[in-house]
């Protein structure tokens, strides 16, 4: 039952991300924060790798079906994030936001790097400065939203788990 609740929350975030955030202009930079990565990273450090990896796979595949260019890429990425970060469940201090934000930064860097490489199949057009600035902008947006979302997600997970 708990997993279904996490999945329903994730599906709500996927629909919010694909229906609302994709059809409006970004506030600060040219890119939008990836609320699904934020949710998967935080969920995995709170509930562990087994459940978060399956939830990440399902949410990634739903996101790929709704807005993805490359089917299965987000599913694989979210599965691996849930699997990897779920191993940190008992190893990091979760009362403060610093350690989860560091994990979020690494996840966003991996996601941005993979998406940049796949989008620029022709490596002659790979502009390192432009793509580096893009990754930094995406990281700033995700860090900002990740700091705001950490304590509400922590509260929801604690309520569901208790």
UniProtKB/TrEMBL annotation:
It comes from the Bacteria. The keyword Membrane applies. It comes from Acetoanaerobium pronyense. It is a multi-pass membrane protein. The keyword Cell membrane applies. Its main location: membrane. Pfam families: MreD. It is found in: Cell membrane. InterPro entries: Cell_shape_determining_MreD (IPR007227). This is Rod shape-determining protein MreD. Belongs to the MreD family.
